[in-house]
Each structure stands twice: as structure tokens, then as C-alpha cells.
């Protein structure tokens, strides 16, 4: 849901500092407020499992952080990827003022269009080197990965489903399957 500023001006990150702790995700894209419903437990379980596996594989140069940690590259943009990987030296205690190396969005029914188009385009514009989409669909879970090429657009470098092995070398070596991320969700 997009909300316009009642003050006749774009929203800023300072406006978000007073947002309620109501379980919704509040993000800003060029001063436009985007509000998303709280995700369901399949989404959150996939986030936890992915963040855990990335944390295990992570090198000392990077940190793996799950949402709601904020990426704040300017006063009118704040994104909260489901999982991000950032250079340790780029982090502040409260947010990441630079582009992360990796942004991961886990798709929910209410976020599919936003995650696959809008957020992917914004991450490319910000210079996020790697972007992953995780679809925790119980019948056919999927992981797709893109790498920024030429500083302006993404090129897909991997796409796996179910038990196919997802393996990338950057930002650090990771090997997993999409079914790993939903293993605890299946009856």
C-alpha cells in the first residue's frame, strides 16, 4: 500500500523513526511510503533458515542481518530486505547507509509483484551487487539469483527449484537447496 505524505512533502527516514511497532513493514522509496502486511510464518521460517545458512557460510568481512534492519542510502529511501549481507565496515549500529552486497527478498502472496519488479529495480539503482528472490512455496520452492552488470541492470546467474543445488561463490561461497528453506514447514 502506498501512502502520500499529509504534509504535502515526500516522506523522509525521520518520519519513519516514529512509525508504530505494529508488525507491518514500513519502507520508503524516493519519498513514497510503502506499507506491507506482516508476513506469515512460512515466510519467516524461510528467512530464519536462509539467514542461518548464510551466517554459517559468511566470511569475517561481511555480516548477515535479517529484517527489519534498515538500508538507508539517502534521506528519502529506506528498504528492509528480508535478509541482507553487508560489509562489516559499512554498517552503523542503527542502519546501513550504503548498498548491501546482497539483498534477499522472500516472496509472500502480498509481496510478489513488489519484490519481483519494484524492489529488484531499486536495488539495481542503489548498486546492490547481488539480489536473490526466494519463493517458499511448499509445492515447488525456488531460489533465483542475479548479479549487477554494468552498474545498471541484473543478469540472472542461478535459478533452482526443490532439491536442485543452489551454489554461488560471491559474496562468499554458499551451497544449499530451496527445499532446505522450507523443510520444517512441510507436514
Instruction: List segments where confidence is low: pLDDT < 50 over at least 5 consecutive residues.
Output: 1-5
Q: In CATH's first tier, which class applies?
A: Alpha Beta
> Quick check: average pLDDT?
90
The shape, in one word, is globular
Strand order of the largest sheet: 4-7-9-10-11-12
The end-to-end span amounts to 33 Å
Number of helical segments with 4 or more residues: 4
Provide the gyration radius in Å: 16 Å
Instruction: Supply the CATH architecture.
Output: Alpha-Beta Complex
Share of helix, binned: 10-25%
CATH homology-level superfamily = tt1808, chain A
Quote the CATH topology: tt1808, chain A
Question: What quaternary form is this?
Answer: single chain
Global structural class: alpha+beta
Strands, count: 14
User: Helix-strand pattern, N to C?
Assistant: EHEEHEEEEEEHEEEEEH
Amino acid at each position: 500500500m502506498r501512502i502520500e505524505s499529509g504534509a504535502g512533502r515526500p516522506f523522509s527516514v525521520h518520519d519513519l523513526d516514529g512509525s508504530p511497532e505494529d508488525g507491518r513493514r514500513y519502507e520508503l522509496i524516493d519519498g513514497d511510503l510503502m506499507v506491507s502486511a506482516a508476513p506469515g510464518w512460512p515466510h519467516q521460517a524461510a528467512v530464519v533458515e536462509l539467514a542461518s545458512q548464510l551466517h554459517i557460510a559468511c566470511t569475517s568481512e561481511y555480516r548477515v542481518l535479517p529484517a527489519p534492519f534498515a538500508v538507508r542510502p539517502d534521506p528519502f529511501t529506506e528498504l528492509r530486505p528480508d535478509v541482507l549481507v553487508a560489509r562489516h565496515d559499512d554498517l552503523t549500529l542503527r542502519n546501513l547507509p550504503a548498498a548491501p552486497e546482497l539483498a534477499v527478498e522472500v516472496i509472500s502472496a502480498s509481496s510478489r509483484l513488489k519484490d519481483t519488479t519494484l524492489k529488484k529495480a531499486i536495488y539495481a539503482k542503489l548498486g546492490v551487487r547481488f539480489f536473490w528472490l526466494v519463493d517458499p512455496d511448499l509445492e515447488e520452492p525456488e531460489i533465483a539469483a542475479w548479479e549487477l552488470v554494468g552498474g545498471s541492470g541484473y543478469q540472472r546467474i542461478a535459478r533452482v527449484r526443490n532439491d536442485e543445488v543452489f551454489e554461488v561463490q560471491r559474496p562468499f561461497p554458499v551451497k544449499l537447496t530451496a527445499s532446505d528453506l522450507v523443510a520444517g514447514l512441510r507436514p
